[in-house]
Amino acid sequence: ADQITTGAGTLGPRENDVAPIMNRLSNEIRLLAAVVRCFIQAGTSQNSPRESRATFVASHRNALVSLLHKSWPCLTHIGNKYCSYEAIAMSIGQLLTESLSLYGSEEELPLLLEITGLAKTSLSVVARAKNPLSLAPLLSFMQKFVYLHGSKIEPSPRNNAVNQPIQVMAKNLMLISYEAVRSCKTSHENDVSQGIASPMFDTLSSCAKKCPIFLLSLSRD
Description:
The protein is mainly α. It is built from 9 helices and no strands. 79% of the residues lie in helices and 0% in strands.
């Protein structure tokens, strides 16, 4: 795929060769996202005893996280090269969103930093490509990230000591998201749809509820 693309998110003369590769990459990432989602659903199902759910999570979680760790270099390469393609952005956004629920304790901060690091890479590519359809799924990820982990982002004496890396990452993600929305609006004028406006508004609303001091600090940057 690297040899038959002619730029970030653009298709060259061999478009018919590129499209199937992008679709296959997208489908494989969606499959990984489905595995994560099914694991989360099985671990939170109310149809089985609490002990059974705990045993399931304990016995399978490490294997799933290990699979993600092994996949991360390839996912990062794909995000860096091809996230301006709508199909790739959609699948990566889906995987990132599903993976957020795997973070469970402060000891797992490296996992959360990996997830948000891939989001930062992907957002940066989409911001340069100015493609609103590629941006929307990553903004949806941002909304869930803030909703689930806003308490870690909010500045406080305890958070500043324990969660400073994720606070820095959250700030970078929010600023990149804002610039990406602005760049899409500039390049597409009035064609920016609710597909971008709605998830960005939802992200800011989650910030206002979960981490208002963090949100106010962004206005100074």
